[in-house]
Amino acid sequence: MAIDSGSAGKGVNFNRGVVKRLYDALNRRDAPAIQQILAPDLEWWFHGPPSHQFLMRLLTGEQDSSFCFLPHSISAFGPTVLAEGFDQSRSIAWVHAWTVTDGVITHVREYFNTSLTVTRFGNTDQSDCSGITSPHCPSVWESSLPDRVGKSVPGLVLAIIELDSSLIYLITYLFLISFALLVLPMGWSWMWDLLPGLDQLFESSV
């Protein structure tokens, strides 16, 4: 999952607060408050048994669920917020990886009964870390509750790549050059035509 570091918004404390308000609204079943926090085109990814899709059922009104999301911890770095919880009665451990953009949640990844390790690459800043227990913070986060499930659970790694604007421009530029060389009949001439614009590209991104 690639993220432009410029989308970090108002800071990790603000982003963590957005997610905390969402859980409060979910447990109150406050639909208007939930709609204000979630983007209408929310991107959703789920890993776990289909019977554990409590959040989807709750938001879509498919059925009245008694499941409550009570986070054991909420950790934030940049626009990414990680929440972890455990339902004792059901022996279910869960992790949510939220993406907050300008105060609105635009992406969520759900993991149920999964041992999750999060790796972070790119523009890592110690000040952008909040509540992450790894001594290598902010590069690694690991879920701490799957052991409570009482059985072995699968392990997954979530890689978060944060790119600044100049690096995004460079990747795009290299892609265009590769496209010109491999696809266009006059690939070499296209490359030489593009090269003079490299300095201007980086000057505009500074």
Task: Write up what this structure looks like.
Helices cover 32% and strands 33% of the residues. It has 206 residues and is of the alpha/beta class. It has a six-stranded mixed sheet with strand order 2-6-5-4-3-8. The longest helix has 18 residues, at 165-182. Mean pLDDT is 75; it is low at 2-9 and 126-139.
SSE layout and pairing:
Blueprint lengths: L1 E3 L7 H17 L2 H7 E10 L6 H7 L10 E7 L2 E8 L4 E10 L2 E9 L2 E8 L6 E2 L9 E3 L12 E9 L1 H18 L4 H8 L3 H8 L1
Parallel strand pairs: 1-10, 2-6, 7-10
Antiparallel strand pairs: 3-4, 3-8, 4-5, 5-6, 7-9
Give short descriptive properties of this protein.
disordered N terminus; alpha/beta; four-stranded mixed sheet; 2 domains; 206 residues; 33% strand; six-stranded mixed sheet; globular; Nuclear Transport Factor 2, Chain: A
Task: Summarize it.
Keywords: Membrane, Transmembrane, Transmembrane helix. The protein is α/β, with parallel strands linked by helices and 206 residues long.
